[in-house]
């Protein structure tokens, strides 16, 4: 048989028809019975046909190697058992958390009790994350005495979390500075000379002190209300409410003075305006200042230390601009409104500078992650933060950058794509996993790696098992294994890998720090630190060496790669045509199937993975589909006429054209039509499924019929109509 595939280049033209058959009694029986399949539903018949895709061209390149057998792994539990930390490691951990030197009181402790002592002694204000992690780890070890978490915490975890805490502490210090400034400014606004306890204390204490010391009745009442509220109420009072309430108190005082003497009210309003203007700088203006003329008051402000600070540059510029004028109205306008407008500009500029500094940190993290080629999830998280709000940026810096370090490593070698680096202890392998006989999809397990800074070189990386804390991928005698860290320099070197551009031009290649010039490479399913020298058997097979030593970094916790998805990964033409999966894989007895964007793919052990497309798929489903017969090849495009066809088990074919629709041909009629030349014969495409015609069986075509007489020797003939 000669046929052209319905999709693009890369599929074989020959079809090996399997002898396997799936019969459904009463619907599709053996070919000699010629039982008519169920007719398609009327709505399927009436549906507008889908144009056939163009036929494919020449054959694609044959793969240079076959996929190896799925390795039979034998995890070594002892390989991931961590030995207790050394005194040197404990000394370093104690120094890291800033609690003094490690005395015998520390060094004599077991790792479990050492971690509890970290929790007990560490400064919770400066190291809250480290304290919380120490408690979490301690609880794990209490419940699981053989868990290696305590030792891993001493070796690496304490340094990771203490580093995060130091960054967060610097941020909290900045927040505390801004909070102190806000309290200082609020106190000056209401004319309270605040002491250190009031400024450096809590927001709630500040509100209480305002209530106790304020002379303005509305400010006092507002402080009392806020003090009984929560943290948000206290902060809102300090940054917003106190200002509006104080202005109301001032207006009441001015209105009261106006009732006695208008001039007295005007003078009071001018004095209060100057006090308010000074309070913008967190300065409590003495009465002598408020008696000055407007221009001299501005000059007095220019002598303050506060206005010399860079964060008040907009107020400084506005004050100097006002004094360059000889118009008293300009001086007054600065005091009444200009200083407030300039203060808003200063606040906006300072806020923008802080936000830009944070965004720059994210950009730097992103650039390093991109350069590493090993942290695509971190890159994606950084991009999302940069596209988001300042709160998104803050969350990324505090949490997101640490929560996206896990990845999986997938092969790139043709025929072996869809295999992942995996180990549960001891030797490391690549494997697609073994699919369940009952579940469509399942997790591979032991194939997720936390990409951390290199144990021996922070410019490189190490791969920590997500299931075995403290265990890393390392080379040992060039074989790559998952072993627990013993903290030695040799182990750190062995477990450090330096990323390079993929040898195939994409992906990433990982050079061993311990063995420069040797790269993480799979061969026959096993993993080695290899090169292309041919010196060892794992340094050979050079036609696929570059691909074997090139990896795609993908999302963690990958699924087992089923036979359908193995074809999707490894058959470029297939993947290009069917598109991406749009539903999960389904298992029904010995059959697996999955919907893709442009077709549905079916698999059995006998037939392999074959897709069914468009109108042919509709006809197939309407005739009980895989429950009757499975496809033995893909949907192909007819070579000389616009149309498509597909062959199924037990001698069934479905042919389609735009004008005739999709119809089934099988048994003796199909055999006779094949001898005539299929759709290239004078008959053209079928226009109906096979159906009874008196005692005969008949299929109608565009330009004639084929009849079969099962009762009289099985005679079959064609004729024009």
TrEMBL record:
Entry keywords, A to Z: Coiled coil, Signal
UniProt-listed InterPro entries: AbfB_ABD, AbfB_ABD_sf, DUF312_ALF, LGFP, TAT_signal
Signal peptide positions (record): 1-35
GO terms (BP aspect): L-arabinose metabolic process
Listed SUPFAM superfamilies: AbfB domain
Domain Alpha-L-arabinofuranosidase B arabinose-binding: 411-553
Entry's Gene Ontology molecular function annotations: alpha-L-arabinofuranosidase activity
CDD domains: beta-trefoil_ABD_ABFB
Domain of life: Bacteria
Coiled-coil region: 345-372
PROSITE patterns xref list: TAT (PS51318)
Positions of the UniProt region annotated as Disordered: 44-82
Protein name listed in UniProt: Alpha-L-arabinofuranosidase B arabinose-binding domain-containing protein
Originating organism: Amycolatopsis xylanica
């Amino acid at each position: 048989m000669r046929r052209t595939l319905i999709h693009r280049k890369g599929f074989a033209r020959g079809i090996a028809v399997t002898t396997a058959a799936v019969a459904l009694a009463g619907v599709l029986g053996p070919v000699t019975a010629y039982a008519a399949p169920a007719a398609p539903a009327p709505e399927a018949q009436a549906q507008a046909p889908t144009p056939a895709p163009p036929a494919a061209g020449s054959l694609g390149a044959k793969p240079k190697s076959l996929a190896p057998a799925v390795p039979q792994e034998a995890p070594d539990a002892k390989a991931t058992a961590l030995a207790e930390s050394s005194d040197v490691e404990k000394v370093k951990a104690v120094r890291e958390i800033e609690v003094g030197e490690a005395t015998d009181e520390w060094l004599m402790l077991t790792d479990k009790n050492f971690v509890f002592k970290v929790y007990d002694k560490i400064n919770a204000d400066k190291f809250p994350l480290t304290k919380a992690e120490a408690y979490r780890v301690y609880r794990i070890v209490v419940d699981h005495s053989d868990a290696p978490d305590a030792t891993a915490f001493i070796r690496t975890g304490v340094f990771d979390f203490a580093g995060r805490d130091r960054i967060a502490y610097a941020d909290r210090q900045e927040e505390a500075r801004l909070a102190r400034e806000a309290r200082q400014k609020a106190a000056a606004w209401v004319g309270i000379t605040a002491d250190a306890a009031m400024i450096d204390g809590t927001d709630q204490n500040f509100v209480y002190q305002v209530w106790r010391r304020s002379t303005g009745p509305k400010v006092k009442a507002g402080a009392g209300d806020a003090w009984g509220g929560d943290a948000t109420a206290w902060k809102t009072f300090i940054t917003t409410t106190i200002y509006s309430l104080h202005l109301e108190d001032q207006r009441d005082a001015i209105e009261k003075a106006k009732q006695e003497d208008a001039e007295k009210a005007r003078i009071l309003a001018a004095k209060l305006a100057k006090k308010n203007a000074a309070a913008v700088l967190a300065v409590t203006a003495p009465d002598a200042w408020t008696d000055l003329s407007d221009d001299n008051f501005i000059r007095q402000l220019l002598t303050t230390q506060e206005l010399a600070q860079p964060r008040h540059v907009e107020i400084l510029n506005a004050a100097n601009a006002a004094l360059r004028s000889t118009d008293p109205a300009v001086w007054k306008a600065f005091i009444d409104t200009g200083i407030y407008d300039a203060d808003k500009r200063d606040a906006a500029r300072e806020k923008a500078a802080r936000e830009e500094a944070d965004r720059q940190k994210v950009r730097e993290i992103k650039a390093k992650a991109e350069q590493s080629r090993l942290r695509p999830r971190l890159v994606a998280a950084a991009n999302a933060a940069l596209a988001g709000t300042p709160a998104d940026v803050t969350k990324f810096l505090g949490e997101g950058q640490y929560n996206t370090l896990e990845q999986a490593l997938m092969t790139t070698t043709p025929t072996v794509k869809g295999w992942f680096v995996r180990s549960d202890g001891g030797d490391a392998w690549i494997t697609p996993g073994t699919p369940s006989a009952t579940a469509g999809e399942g997790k591979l397990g032991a194939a997720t790696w936390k990409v951390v800074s290199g144990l021996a070189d922070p410019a490189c990386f190490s791969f920590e098992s997500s299931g075995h804390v403290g265990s890393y991928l390392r080379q040992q005698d060039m074989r790559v294994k998952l072993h627990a860290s013993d903290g030695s320099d040799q182990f750190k070197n062995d477990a450090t890998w330096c990323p390079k551009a993929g040898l195939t031009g994409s992906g990433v290649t990982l050079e061993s720090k311990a063995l420069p010039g040797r790269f993480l490479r799979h061969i026959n399913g096993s993993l080695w630190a290899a090169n292309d020298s041919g010196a060892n058997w794992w340094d050979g097979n050079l036609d696929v060496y570059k691909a074997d030593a090139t990896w795609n970094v993908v999302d963690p916790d990958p699924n087992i790669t089923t036979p359908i998805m193995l074809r999707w990964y490894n058959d470029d033409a297939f993947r290009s045509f069917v598109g991406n999966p749009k539903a999960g894989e389904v298992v029904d007895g010995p059959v697996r199937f999955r919907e893709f964007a442009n077709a549905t793919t079916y698999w059995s052990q006998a037939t392999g993975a074959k897709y069914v497309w468009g109108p042919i798929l509709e006809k197939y489903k309407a005739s009980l589909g895989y429950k009757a017969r499975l496809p033995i090849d893909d949907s192909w495009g007819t070579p000389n006429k616009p149309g498509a066809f597909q062959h199924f088990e037990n001698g069934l074919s479905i042919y389609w054209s735009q004008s005739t629709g999709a119809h089934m041909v099988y048994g003796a009629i199909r055999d006779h039509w094949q001898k005539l030349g299929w759709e290239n014969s004078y008959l053209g495409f079928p226009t109906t499924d096979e159906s009874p015609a008196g005692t005969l069986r008949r299929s109608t075509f565009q330009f004639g019929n084929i009849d079969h007489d099962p009762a009289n020797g099985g005679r079959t003939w064609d004729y024009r109509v």
